[in-house]
Amino acid sequence: MIVLGIETSCDETAAAIVNSEHKILSESIHSQLDTHRKYLGVVPELAARSHVDLCDKIIMDVFNKTDFTIKDIDAIAATAGPGLIGGLLVGLTTAKAISISTKKPFLAINHLDAHALTPRLTNKIEFPYLLLLISGGHTMFLSVEGPGKHIIIGNTIDDALGEAYDKTARLLGLGYPGGAELEKLAKSGNEKRFKFPRPLKGKKGCNFSFSGLKTSVRQTAERNAPLSAQVKADIAASFQYTVCEVIAEKMRNAIEIFSHKNPDSKIIAAAGGVASNLYIKSTLENIAQEGGFAFIVPPSKYCTDNGAMIAWAGIEHRLLGVKSDYAFDARARWSLEGLKI
Ligand code: KG4
Ligand code: ZN
Predict the structure, then answer these.
(1) Residue-wise pLDDT tens digits, 68-124
(2) Nearest CA to ligand 1 atom 16
(3) Residues with CB under 6 A from ligand 1
(4) Counting C-beta atoms within 10 Å of the first and last residue's C-beta, which end of the chain has fewer, N or C?
(5) Domain extents for the chain?
(6) How far apart are CA 311 and CA 26, in angstroms?
(7) Which CATH class is domain 127-301?
(8) What class is the 2-116+305-318 domain?
């Protein structure tokens, strides 16, 4: 089976052709970072216009890079939510138009479902597995039981982890999005210099909270202003150290909850943009090893938003005989639980 996937939920216009043998046959992506950087965040209206400009070109590019033509495609999948509504409408409408004109099935994909299934595309792992999804918009532990079948066992009660990285980076005068820059800066800092709070420390379960940490980082920056290069690096390192302490504690709790229901599964995976952070990855790797689990993270370019993850989710659902209705609308919010496409 070969599926075309289209992703337009945030600030990446992306498309890919993937087959059911886990092979990414062709892919193309345009990141709008340069458009949004000066506003220090994604501007929805500008994002939507950029998707309108680029969506067809990116899809053409995907076909131009390969010998496959639209005739070889078995289904067309596009992100239908959650995300920014203007962008979602562009990708979804494009997918429906291609589907109608080629008479090939159309699939409305949940973006989080696609992130959660990506470790199966890249590493061929079996269900069920424990997944930590850490992106700019979401931070959750999922028990991934099948395509569209997830149980949320932990969630953030305020900010997403990527958001906390971006806000801290902004405070330190780094660019947007600042996660990767902050990771770089932290390497030259003293992680023990500042003691930041660990919200929900010692609490049962595996929910997260990052807003108290964010406030404490801001207060520390204000107290030490003007910030020298060394203080900035020390704040970055101490922030990242605290984040990893939090993740380690919550991961141990998540493993316990997951294992109770799935005693035979020994796989932990991570996905989402923040999962490309090496320091976080090594923390997770250690916790996984400690519990006798294998730890899987897709390559960075498949952790962040991309077309291949949407095409792969399309394959997983299509193999179960699913096809979406053309009446399926874009959804700014769309829960993972009780998912129906
Ligand atoms: O998954 P993603 O590309 O988009 C969303 O669906 O949100 O994640 C983007 C987030 C941003 O907040 C970015 O700062 C963060 O991932 N990020 C990182 C790193 N690379 C990207 N955070 C920490 N360390 C990194 N190396
Ligand atoms: Zn995403």
Answers:
(1) 999 999 999 999 999 999 999 999 999 999 999 999 999 999 999 999 999 999 999
(2) 273
(3) 10, 135-137, 162, 165-166, 177-180, 183, 272-274, 276-277, 304-305
(4) N
(5) 2-116+305-318, 127-301
(6) 11
(7) alpha beta
(8) alpha beta
